[in-house]
Amino acid sequence: MPLAQPSERIAQISTRNEWYNFERKLKIFMLTANTNSIDCLIVPSIPAPKVEKSASLSKPLKLGILASGSGSNFEVIAQAIQNQEFNAQIPVLIYNNPEAKAAARAEKYGIPSILLNHRDSKTREELDTKIVRTFQEYDIEWVVMAGWMRIVTKVLLDAFADRVINIHPSLLPSFPGIRAVEQALAAKVKITGCTVHIARLEVDSGPILMQAAVPVLPDDTAETLHARIQVQEHKIMLGAIALIAESHQKHCD
Ligand code: GRF
Asked: Residue 78 maps to which CATH number?
């Protein structure tokens, strides 16, 4: 199947109608990364665009990252930016859990990190208000929930309308919520995977940007399956951000 040319892609993603247009243009394609089986099936999206080195490009897209845990998705984004794979920057990482390894990863890349411990906020709205204020101070344009283990509210979603993305370790709409990998194993599905989507109020819902399918193997535990899902998460996270950065670039030109 011929891949979409850059000119065929939607130039801006900022309103709901534009999202509908965007979704109409989605292509289905397969990546076979393993000789024996399909390793990854990216279901409904445009392939990650081949992006020019960013040195000569205009204003980088400012991404604000939210992370609660290990931060491996955050790190692949930081590394891709360092490699100039897309024209973006991460002015700040916010984490909510003092134990989050994401903070050490931020330090490695010279990215400022701010702890907003959810225990210091009485409500979810109060935490989100602090997040919005912080991101606004750093002129953040898009928000990436890269393993953010808090339910977000209207406060965040309205402040960054249609500009908050989330990654989830299942093929949504299957298995939303916590312990998605365990849910997939309990349901005895043969294929699960991961999803990057625009965040909406309902947990793990919203327009899907990219998905990758991962076969469930007979001996899989939650750990082994999650490890293989994460390999694919890193690919679709970068694919989705490349797409957003490209749209942003066109918007700026
Ligand atoms: C990922 O599996 C993501 O799908 C889920 O939380 C995990 C975060 O992993 N929402 P990491 O912190 O990016 O390594």
From this structure: 3.40.50.170
Q: What's the CA gap between 212 and 44, in Å, rounded? A: 9
Q: What is the pLDDT of residues 29-61, one digit of tens each?
A: 233 223 233 344 444 444 444 444 444 457 899
Question: Is 168 a known active-site residue?
Answer: yes
Q: How far apart are CA 146 and CA 241, in angstroms?
A: 12
Range of the domain at 76: 50-252
Give the binding-site residues of ligand 1, using a 6 Å CB cut-off.
67, 69-73, 146-147, 167-169, 194, 230, 233
Q: What tens digit of pLDDT does each residue of 163-173 get?
A: 999 999 999 99
* E strands, the chain, in order: 29-31, 40-42, 61-67, 88-95, 113-115, 142-145, 164-168, 191-198, 208-215
Q: Is residue 36 assigned to a domain?
A: no
239 in a structural domain: yes
Residue 139 lies in a domain: yes
Residue 54 lies in a domain: yes
CA nearest ligand 1 atom 14, residue: 72
Query: Into how many domains does the chain fold?
Result: 1
- Residue whose CA is closest, atom 8 of ligand 1? 147
